[in-house]
Amino acid sequence: xxxxxxxxxxxxxxxxxxxGCGSEASETSxxxxxxxxxxxxxxxxxxxxxxxxxxxxxxYSRPIWEQIYQPLLAFDTKTLEMIPALVTGQAEINDxxxxxxxxxxxxxxxLRPEARWDNGEPVTxxxxxxxxxxxxxxxxxxxxxxxxxxxxxxxxxxxxxxxxFTIVAYRKYxxxxxxxxxxxxxxxxxxxxxxxxxxxxxANIISGELTDEQTANLxxxxxxxxxxxxxxxxxxxxxxxxxxxxxWEAGQYISLTKKDDWWGEFLxxxxxxxxxxxxxxxFRLIPDQAxxxxxxxxxxxxxxxQLDPKDFTELKSNEFVxxxxxxxxxxxxxxxxxxxNNKDPLLSDLRVRRALAHLVDVDxxxxxxxxxxxxxxxxxxxxSRDYYNRDLRPIPYDLDEARRQLAExxxxxxxxxxxxxxxxxxxRRELELDYLVPSxxxxxxxxxxxxxxxxxxxxxxxxxxxxxxxxxxxEVVDRNYQIYxxxxxxxxxxxxxxxxxxxxxxxxxxxxxxxxFGDAESDALIDRIxxxxxxxxxxxLYLEFQELVYNEQPMIFLxxxxxxxxxxxxxxxSATELRPGFMVNTFKLxxxxx
Length: 594
Fold this sequence. Notes:
About 30% of the residues lie in helices and about 20% in strands. By secondary structure, it is an alpha+beta fold. The strands form seven sheets. Strands 1, 14, 15, 18, 19, 20 and 21 form a seven-stranded mixed beta sheet that branches. Strands 2-11-10-9 form a four-stranded mixed beta sheet, with no helix packed on it. The chain has a four-stranded antiparallel beta sheet with strand order 5-6-8-7.
């Protein structure tokens, strides 16, 4: 389960238009459409890294791979409640009251007998075990996912029912049901045809109690799954879901087609998670905002999100667009920020990071770039949460305070060149910072320019370095950055667990604590949040954690906007709080002849 995955700060903001999360399509009988086929053409703002739910670090890949691979339980697009997908019902949860895991719990599921892979074989518990083995394989770059799975110690098959299995957790965890249940299952016969992991007990992989031969096999498997064909080749990217990958034309599009005689076809009426109405799905890569608007007006896309606020506003006044599209603004559980490399020598001092925060006029950004439809944020949790700490004062735009913080940290312009400097490790360094900017992000670029201009006024030189999305994210993953524009896609369906983004265990090349935040104190607090099931007790921990992050300023928290979505009226469809704001598999083609 890929929670809190990083997105690019491409065109953001939006204007509230017509409705909230969705609206009924208006009368379409007098409107003609360019496309009449049952294919959904969706805009893809950036190219995914790969199509593997366990390995991806890009939020742009999920709308595609979730049509190919299925979870045990999915989230309902309207209620956001978990509903069965590969399993027959909700987890049976029981406390463990004795033995080695007396403080833990068990989660029992049963696989659907109908579920099938593309080779006609049933989805089995062995596939579920294989998926968890892959996740826990220490050589597989899935540290972010492993941080959520940490309470798990074993998976046991019911000896009387081979489709029934129980996950054992050594401790109680507030997200365990969602994390275990939303695990997307991979076919073992595709990813491990030689059985490299088949004979290695899952419990041993989790505990690390491995022989040299087992360790070698795990490493060999990790090398295999990392090969591009297992994330790009249609012959290898195959799951139990309704769609299969047809082609991936780099820089252009990714296309999927619905499988013939898909196993879930006749269950969709009673189970919304199995809906698969379109015959084909085409995800068109259109990073540029102007090109996206042109594609909408030319009906080259049926669905698009993350539209630039100015463009979205203009669409509201376009008669052709209003006749052909719904304009929707579902809640966007996102946090926009400027990431700071806390371990960089120039940014390791809290006072420097605080000074940088005072350079950002967030109120101006909200009013001029988001048309007021965004809310300031002071920390890592979305303002819509009932445990959001509203006692924390937003960092004000204040250049004088920024200068004061820099001076207090020992930064001054000793040579009169307009840039403050300081001796660090015996070397005089000027405060010159590189700022990574996404090439497709017009609003993100404007924020960067505003930041650069304000920084210059207090004696900081900022170099704006434009990067293509994947190249930029690779530099962030490698920690080869000082500042970058980004957004965290938060999840409306589950409570916040700070472990993945803020625990030091996630401060690894494959982890997602990419700002280098944390120490023993913050780790202990994060651990307590994750194990506290009582809401009132957890509230106090949430508030304390937000205050701790606020006081350390590991990144510059900006705002949370609403989403901006357009959906063609040739489909019966609505927006959703699930990312990216719509679910293409739920689109029903409208009979325009009626």
